[in-house]
Write a structure and sequence with these properties.
Chain B: It comes from Hespellia stercorisuis DSM 15480. Chain B: This is Probable DNA metabolism protein. Chain A: It comes from Hespellia stercorisuis DSM 15480. Chain A: Keywords: Iron, Iron-sulfur, Metal-binding, S-adenosyl-L-methionine. Chain A: This is Putative DNA modification/repair radical SAM protein. The structure holds two protein chains of two kinds. Helices cover about 40% and strands about 10% of the residues of chain A. By secondary structure, chain A is α/β, with parallel strands linked by helices. Among the domains of chain A are: about 170 residues, no CATH class; about 90 residues, no CATH class. In chain A, strand 2 and strand 3 form a beta hairpin. Chain B is α/β, with parallel strands linked by helices. Chain B folds into two domains: about 130 residues, no CATH class; about 120 residues, no CATH class. Helix content of chain B is about 45%, strand content about 15%. In chain B, the strands form two sheets. In chain B, strands 4-5-6-7-8 form a five-stranded mixed beta sheet, covered by helices on one side. A three-stranded parallel beta sheet of chain B has the order 2-1-3. The chains are: A alpha/beta, B alpha/beta. At the A-B interface, helix 1, strand 2, strand 3, helix 2 and helix 12 of A face helix 5, strand 4, helix 6, helix 8 and helix 9 of B.
């Protein structure tokens, strides 16, 4: 391991940004807070994107590692201890300076601080605590802070950090305990879920305390924007079904705000990792998982409705909602002027915003297809599934093959970000199943994984 | 029948004054209309009148909208009138006249099947969206005298929409945001409320003199933006769809 002492701020920022870039979340949403007038900063509920990098991802927070020194040797990670890379650390003062000066110029919405593990989880987290304390109390920074909680940190420290941060996240890293054992030998599932549970309980207690004390109490808020997590997709042989089952349990049992999925990117060579294939990261798969994730959170879908044992992976050509609708044609067509909100939500081409507008607008009169267009319904997808005043828009047949053929002619069923990728489209060797032989995971174990651990 | 068309300047005071005059005159969009100076298309069967603009008329209309149509409708109308669009004033007048004919005038913005209500709704949404984007895309640079200075080229007159946001965010800073398209400057003095200066010429010389440390932080930021991108995922068209070119021209990280 190389430790270089004399690095400039420019070099340090390069190294520690480069090491942090694989972290997914750059959201600054979930909390609304006005500045108190004495310091600097505020937060907006929906979050604000400040820029977009060349890969099209949003830059909202200053996403850096505290240090890329790490005692762990996770096989997929660029900072694993056995990699020979330049190691460096920020000091709390440097973190404050960067955050404050970037924030003043409106470059960023706040700080996203993660870290490699130097010496021990407790030692690392106490350094992070020192940096955040200074930022909040000396610099009087009132913007957004997202901090990673490192599994294995003692409870008291997580409590104290939670009062300084807006969002906390513990990385799931990989969807199943089996994969974790294989690729992240120093981490265990139990270790990861413990701080998650801790934060969840503390958030609930804190809400009750605040409710009891009332406005006059003016109590500090603990992790007001809730917690999130992320999993790497495509490094291990889990099916999409297993992954969204895990996500569903996390939402239900741990009250998570978001689960992020990160398409696996080959940065290390290891016999336990998928072989280098020359393909890019599985972006289409990641995209489908995000689509399904939205269906779980906003559209009242259950994981079991979207996929099942016999059909464990998402359709390459169709988004999960269209796919579901085609398999459940018995629910369609839906009469837009009468159907309730939840039924409207299930129609492809109608989002939760347009569903809400439909319910509002039809009080004023009968809706026609022209009105739906103005409301924001994507008619080229919805037209097979809806009627207005008992009439279809065009004489179409309610048959799976017919609709599928027509939907595929509409180009935007696969978004630009993935349509242009060379490797994608209908490949026999798409993602998951192809790599299965590389792992020795018993089928029975895979199936019950989600329920077993989270149960 | 002859339609009376009122001609006014493209400003809030101008358009509200025109609405004041038109409101007294006609009951429907067939009878009265508003045209913006510079976007006039003379038509048959129209009688054109110049509006005498005054603050008093404008305040009266503002009060009337808030009282009879509700604050939410005022919010939509206000945003729609900041748009870069030559029929916005006529659309707002049309929507306000339509509100007379429905049972609850406060609900006028839900009557999207009315073409002019829909127009107002669309304009308001697009201006509010643009303003929201600028809360993120504004880039300040620190001048020699410590003032944070920014230049933007928005399509709509968004300065007043983002003023409260930045005042709340940087209460203890002196900052200025200049709108190059509409020649307006938003000025905030530490600890005070913001003000909007119209038709102001900036001292070009002064705003080019940046502080000593400015270059350092700009370089660090540019470096950060380049480094944070993942090579294997690069996708310039996705980047452009999130942040179109006309926003990029005023942002330091897109400087070549």
């Amino acid at each position: 391991m190389q430790i270089m002492e004399k690095l400039t701020m420019y070099d340090k920022l390069s190294i520690l940004t480069d090491a942090a870039k694989y972290d997914v979340a750059c959201t600054s949403s979930g909390t609304a807070r006005n500045g108190d007038g004495t310091g600097i900063g505020n937060c907006s509920q929906s979050g604000i994107c400040h820029s977009f990098s060349a890969d099209g991802r949003c830059i909202s927070l200053l996403k850096i590692l505290f240090t890329n020194e790490c005692i762990y040797d996770c096989k997929y990670c660029v900072n694993r201890s056995s990699n020979d890379v330049v190691r460096t650390s920020f000091t709390p003062d440097e973190i404050c300076e960067l955050t404050m000066e970037f924030y003043r110029r409106n470059y960023i919405e706040g700080l996203f601080l993660s870290s490699g593990i130097v010496k021990s989880p407790n030692y690392t987290m106490s350094l992070i605590y020192a940096a955040l304390y200074k930022l909040r109390h000396t610099c009087n920074f009132q913007g957004y802070i997202h901090v990673k909680a490192i599994p294995g940190t003692e409870e008291g420290l997580i409590h104290r950090i939670g009062f300084l941060a807006d969002r906390m996240s513990v990385n799931m890293e990989l969807p199943t305990a089996e994969s974790l054992r294989l690729l992240a030998p120093h981490k265990t599932r139990k270790n990861i879920l413990t701080p998650m549970r801790l934060v969840q309980n503390r958030v609930n207690e804190n809400k009750q305390e605040i409710a009891l004390a009332g406005k006059a109490g003016n109590l500090a808020r603990f992790v007001p924007a809730g917690q999130s997590t992320q999993m790497i997709i495509g490094a291990t042989p889990e099916s999409d079904f297993q992954i969204i089952k895990v996500a569903e349990s996390l939402y239900q049992k741990f009250d998570l705000k978001r689960v992020f999925y990160s398409a696996f990117i080959q940065v290390n060579e290891d016999r336990n990792l998928p072989a280098v294939t020359g393909e890019g990261p599985p972006l289409l798969r990641e995209h489908r998982l995000y689509q399904a994730d939205w269906l779980l959170r906003y559209y009242n879908f259950a994981a079991d409705e979207l996929l099942d044992e016999s059909n464990p992976n998402f359709n390459v050509l169709l988004d999960p909602k269209c796919n579901w609708a085609l398999k459940h044609l018995e629910y369609f067509p839906v009469e837009v002027n009468h159907a309730d909100y939840n039924t409207l939500l299930r129609v492809p081409g109608i989002g939760y915003r347009s569903a809400k507008r439909i319910v509002q607008a039809r009080r004023m009169g009968i809706l026609r297809f022209e009105d739906l267009k103005k409301i924001g319904v994507v008619l080229k997808r919805a037209l097979y599934f809806i009627t207005c005043e008992g009439r279809l828009m065009y004489p179409v047949r309610l048959e799976e093959d017919y609709i599928l053929r027509n939907l595929l002619n509409v180009r935007d069923s696969v978004p630009d970000s993935v349509a242009n990728m060379k490797f994608q489209q209908i490949s026999l060797f798409d993602d998951v199943r192809f790599r299965e032989e590389q792992f020795q995971v018993l089928p029975g174990e895979k199936r019950t994984e989600a329920e077993r651990i989270l149960g | 029948m002859i339609r009376k068309v009122y001609i006014c300047n493209d400003s809030l005071t101008g358009i509200f004054s025109a609405i004041y005059d038109a409101w007294k005159e006609g009951k429907s969009g067939q009878e009265v209309g508003i045209a913006l100076r510079g976007h006039l298309e003379n038509r048959l069967f129209c009688e054109y009148t110049e509006v005498s603009e005054s603050e008093k008329k404008s305040v009266a209309v503002e009060r009337m909208i808030k009282k009879n149509l509700g604050y939410d409708t005022y919010w939509d109308i206000y945003h729609a009138l900041l748009a870069d669009d030559c029929v916005k004033a006529d659309a707002v007048l049309g929507a306000m006249l339509a509100a007379r004919n429905i049972p609850d005038s406060r609900k006028i913005m839900t009557y999207l099947s009315h073409p002019q209500v829909e127009k107002v709704f669309e304009l308001s949404r697009s201006v509010a969206n643009e303003a929201h984007l600028f809360t993120g895309f504004v880039r300040f640079c620190e001048l020699e005298n410590g003032i944070l200075f920014s230049e933007i080229s928005p399509k709509a007159q968004v300065l007043t929409c983002i003023a409260d946001h930045f005042t709340n965010r940087f209460p203890q800073e002196n900052w200025m945001i200049a709108d190059k398209t509409h020649h307006m400057v938003l000025v905030h003095e530490a600890g005070r409320h913001w003000i909007l200066a119209q038709n102001q010429k900036l001292d070009e010389e002064q705003v080019r003199r940046t502080s000593e440390k400015e270059d350092t932080y700009e370089t660090l930021w540019k470096n950060f933006c380049t480094t944070i991108s993942i090579e294997n995922r690069e996708n310039p068209s996705l980047q452009r769809s999130h942040i179109p070119r006309h926003f990029q021209q005023d942002m330091v990280e897109f400087d070549k």
